[in-house]
């Protein structure tokens, strides 16, 4: 059974300076509208990193190229997959592609059966659950699996529509 199906929902970069990266992505790729969410906090109750409770803060900015969600992540504090990536890759770079799944728990069981490690996971209650799978053995970036609740899906859809309207 496949872990993911359908189109890639999101392409994400980890960056050192989110404001500069927004400007570059606007000028060079044409992402015309950004929705920045500063100081997104994850706690040991809502996130884990390499199997241990995690406590970190990130800045997130979401934009769209057509229907393709573009995510920029800037680590602010704490140790996590994003700080690890910056330490390994200097100024940042392409970090992950993401797919939507209907049931994250069941999809992670499939990944576990295939010996695919989960490096980080977390949630925003019932509205969004996510996990990063490590595909580095095959030379690929991380794969993020996202399970969205109806309010988060509507939020993302409204951002996409607003982005298309601003073109």
TrEMBL record:
<dbReference type="InterPro" id="IPR029068">
    <property type="entry name" value="Glyas_Bleomycin-R_OHBP_Dase"/>
</dbReference>
<protein>
    <submittedName>
        <fullName>VOC family protein</fullName>
    </submittedName>
</protein>
<dbReference type="InterPro" id="IPR037523">
    <property type="entry name" value="VOC_core"/>
</dbReference>
<feature type="domain" description="VOC">
    <location>
        <begin position="7"/>
        <end position="148"/>
    </location>
</feature>
<dbReference type="Pfam" id="PF13669">
    <property type="entry name" value="Glyoxalase_4"/>
</dbReference>
